[in-house]
Amino acid sequence: MRLRIAALLIALMVAGCGKAAPSADMPARTWQYYVAHPQEVEAMQKICREWSAGHGPAESEPAVVTTNCRAAAFAKSQRQIAP
Q1: Residue 59 CA: distances (Å) to CA of 13, 16, 18, 52
Q2: Which of 7, 29, 55, 72 is most open to solvent, judged by the fewest CB atoms within 10 Å of its CB?
Q3: Span between the terminal Cα atoms of the chain, in Å
Q4: What is each CA distance from 34 to 9, 25, 73, 80, in whole angstroms?
Q5: What whole-number distance in Å separates Cα of residue 75 and Cα of residue 65?
């Protein structure tokens, strides 16, 4: 039984290693930047989806990605609220 579980866990670990995470070579942005440059919000949110699809632990995301994802999401919400 333990051998089956070990084999299953190894297979799951190998399956999760197939896709590399997107690059985090980007400048940190504020929500004000994304409000001023709304055309960049969707591009940033695409990067955020790619990082979250990596299924890695949240703490493995670079801080710049987390910061930019939150800033872009907040800016998008602010633009939707504004008349």
Answers
A1: 18, 17, 20, 11
A2: 55
A3: 62
A4: 41, 18, 9, 13
A5: 15
Cα–Cα distance measured from residue 1 to residue 6, given in angstroms and rounded to the nearest whole number: 9
H helices of 1-83, in order, are 2-15, 31-36, 39-53, 63-81
Q: What's the mean per-residue pLDDT of the chain?
A: 78
Structure tokens at 83: 């008349």
Supply 61's token pair. Answer: 């995301």
**pTM, entire model:** 0.64
Written as six digits, the tokens of 22 are 């997107």
**pLDDT band at residue 65 under the 50/70/90 scheme:** confident
Read off the amino acid at residue 21.
A
- Pick the more confident residue, 21 or 60: 60
